[in-house]
Amino acid sequence: MQPPTISAFMAGHHKECDELFAQAEEAIADNNWADGVPKWSQFASELEKHFTREESILFPEFESQTGMVGGPTQMMRMEHEQMRSLVSEINKASSSQDKEQFLALSETLMITMQQHNMKEEQILYPMTDQSLPNGSDIIDRMRQE
Ligand SMILES: [Fe+2]
């Protein structure tokens, strides 16, 4: 079996995150905090893992290989910060079981996340597949993160 490309591996993790997010949101929309809160935490920790994989492994590899330091990866890092601050607001809404606030902020996060993931999947990840010859080593390192 062919090892996955960076694109496939990263897009697969986006999908896992999206599913956890949808389950958390659905449970909380149903007032099911008992299932919704742990799902939300699971989502938040997978999302953070995803950001860390990019910021500490994938982006630096891409930057050193291509010399593109202030370009797309810088934009992606800024968007990660925006999403982190939304996540921390949603954490508060989750601990105080403020459904209205939770759903309003999670809607914003979902839109931000969709746009961000689309840019990565359509532009940045294919660029990493093209420019990084040691894709499977990079995937192995990201798996350990
Ligand atoms: Fe990202």
Task: Provide key terms for this protein.
mainly alpha; Four Helix Bundle (Hemerythrin (Met), subunit A); 5 helices; binds fe (ii) ion
Would you kindly provide a brief summary of this structure?
By secondary structure, the protein is mostly helical. The protein has a single domain (6-143), classed as Up-down Bundle (Four Helix Bundle (Hemerythrin (Met), subunit A)), CATH 1.20.120.520. The chain is 86% helix and 0% strand.
Overall residue-averaged pLDDT value: 96
Q: Uncertain segments of ≥5 residues (pLDDT<50)?
A: none
Q: Looking at the structure, what is the overall shape?
A: elongated
Structural class of the secondary elements? mainly alpha
CATH architecture tag: Up-down Bundle
Bound molecules: fe (ii) ion
Major sheet characteristics: none
Beta-strand percentage range = under 5%
Number of domains: 1
